[in-house]
Amino acid sequence: MRFLLRVLPLLVLAAACTKIVLSPRLDFVGASRFISASRITTTATVTADSLASKIYAQAADLKNDPALMRLRITLNSAPTRTPVLYPTIISSYRASDTPNDPELVYLDSLLAPGTKDIAFTNLLTGRTASGVDLWQYTVTDATGAIASRAYRLSLRRTDSLTAVVHSYRAYFGAVPAGRSSAPLTAAQNQALAYLNLRQGLLLPHFAVSATNPTKDANRALVDLVCTSRGVTLRLSSTRSDSLVTTGWGTSTHTTALHATALTATDFIGLTTNALLASTFDAGAATNGDPLRTAPLVKGTVVAFLTATTGPGGAKYGALLITDLVRTPATVVTCQVLVQK
Asked: Is the N or the C terminus of the chain less surrounded, counting Cβ atoms within 10 Å?
C-alpha cells in the first residue's frame, strides 16, 4: 500500500507531462446543395448531374497537434461505369462478366506547410449506368494519422436491360483554349470540362493536371474537352491543339467530330446503332478539322466516333446542345446518345 501511494503521484505527473496527440478530424458540411450521405436513385431518364460535396478537416488540437499534410479523394465504381449491353436471354448473363472499374484518384494534393484546417468543395457527376459509386475523402497529418469519410451514390436504371443506345444529359464547364502560360483560376481548375462519352463521367481539370500522380490514367479516360476562347465555346478531341491537352502524349484520343444538319426532333429519333453510325457518316468535319466542333450554338447536333484506342473502343454517338450559359459561370448542357 505504501508503495502504491508513492508510485501514484509519479504516474499522475508522468501523465500530466505526456503530450496526447489525437487523429485529425474530417466531416461533411451539411446543406441542401451538398451531398453528405449515401443515396439511391431509380429512374429511366438519367442526368449526369453536377453534384457537390463540401468537407471540413482540421487537426484535433489546432494549437498543438501536427499540421494536415494531404487531401485525397477517390472514386470506386461497382460494376464499371461503362453501360452494359445485356444478352437477349438474360438468364445467360453472369455478373462476373461485368468487372469493377479500377480506383480513380480524383484528387491527391499536398497541403501548404502549417495547414491546421481546410474546407474544400468537390464538384462531381453521378453515374449514368446502373451501379454504385463510392466516393471517399481522406486527410492525412504530418505523423501519418488519417481521418476518412465516404458515401455511396447508387443508380438503378429501369431501361438497363432493354436499351441498346446509352443516353444521358451532361453539364460541361470549360477551360481556356490556346497555349497561354497563364495559370487557371480556381473555378477553371474545378471546371468539369473533360468527358468520357460512354460513361458520362466528367472530370475537373485538377484530376488530369500535371500535379495529380494518376494523371495518365485519368487522361486516358477523356474523349472530349470543352474549351473557351472569350465567349466562344467548342468541344474538342484531346488530340486537338488546346492548352489543356498539350503534352498529354499517348494519353490523348482522336475522337472524330462531325457537324450535322439534324434538329432536336431528329435527335430524338436516333434510337439504334445503325442510325448513330449513318448520322456520323452523313456529317462533315468543320472546316476540314475533325478534332473540334464549330463554335457551339444551342440546338445544334454533333455526331462523333470515339477512338479505337480509347476507353471501350470505337463507338458512334451524337450529342445535342440544349442550353448555353456563359455567366456567371460557363455551363454547356447537352443530351448524349452513344452505342453501348
From this structure: N
